[in-house]
Amino acid sequence: MDYPTVRESIEAFLKKAYDLVEDPSTDKIISWAPGGKRFVVWKPLKCSTDLLSQRVGITNLSTFQSYGFSKICSGQQLEFLCKDFEKGTLSFWRRLAIGTWPF
């Protein structure tokens, strides 16, 4: 049985996460923050139980931190940011290609 490499696992997670945040149909639950440098999880419980498990393959929002994201708590919602994980750009792929993700 072939298992994905660490790099392939990171790529798959980032692509799924990016697609989820980018999807306008999920904006009431998770969306880009103004400026597009971070994303906001407006409804953390709904995001974890409904979206993350189905679309990203995880059930815990803290998993983002293990991929180099910083978490900011602000009231009922959570915000996550990570260098180069930004709206409208896939520049994180460039960092993966040269082996510098997530640091």
From TrEMBL:
Protein keywords: DNA-binding, Nucleus, Stress response
Q: Is Transmembrane among the key words of this record?
A: no
Q: Known InterPro entries for this protein?
A: HSF_DNA-bd, WH-like_DNA-bd_sf, WH_DNA-bd_sf
Subcellular location field: Nucleus
Write down the SMART domains for this protein, in alphabetical order: HSF (SM00415)
Q: Which GO terms describe its cellular component?
A: nucleus
- Family the entry assigns: Belongs to the HSF family.
The record's PANTHER family line, in alphabetical order, gives:
HEAT SHOCK FACTOR PROTEIN (PTHR10015:SF427), HEAT SHOCK TRANSCRIPTION FACTOR (PTHR10015)
According to UniProt, the name of this protein is: HSF-type DNA-binding domain-containing protein
- Name the source organism: Eruca vesicaria subsp. sativa (Garden rocket)
